[in-house]
Specification:
By secondary structure, the chain is an alpha+beta fold. Helices cover 23% and strands 30% of the residues. The protein has helices spanning 52-69, 90-101; strands spanning 3-7, 22-26, 31-37, 77-84, 107-112, 123-130. Helix 1 packs across helix 2 (90-101). It is globular and about 40 Å long. The termini are close together.
Length: 131
């Protein structure tokens, strides 16, 4: 099992939310790279673009399923990138880190883009895990 250490050095600003500035991994047997997950169900049906929270839940369910397929879980995530389209959704996007990663905050980047692959997508999240 990998030893994952999360560090927030006192020499840089405190994290804005539940993420770690530095994540180190020792003894990992495998790295799991998950492509960006979106609010589409197993049949490709996309949730409507009017509910960020519902899309977040589906994105995280899809991410958990992707991680599981690679033999990992949320606690094994060392880095995530969150892509959103609306700057007003920043607080909601940061809440994802608190709600889903709890005591295992990954390194995190939050990007605001002009759009994603489908105009109905409000967010997309990709992850790297170590197991």
């Amino acid at each position: 099992m990998a030893k994952i250490t999360r560090i927030n050095p006192s020499t840089i600003s405190k994290p804005f939310t539940n993420y770690a500035h530095v994540v180190t991994v020792e003894g990992a047997q495998k790295l799991v790279f998950c492509a960006g997950q979106v609010a589409a169900d197993v049949d490709g049906k996309v949730l409507p673009p009017d509910d960020f929270d519902a899309q977040s839940r589906m994105v995280m369910k899809n991410l958990e399923n992707a991680l599981a397929a690679g033999g990992a879980r949320l606690a094994d995530v060392t880095k995530i990138t969150i892509y959103i389209c609306n700057p007003h959704d920043v607080p909601k996007a940061r809440r994802i880190l608190n709600d889903y990663f709890g005591d295992h905050p990954p390194g995190s980047t939050l990007c605001i883009l002009r759009g994603l692959a489908n105009p109905n997508f409000l967010l997309e999240i990709e992850a790297i895990a170590a197991v």
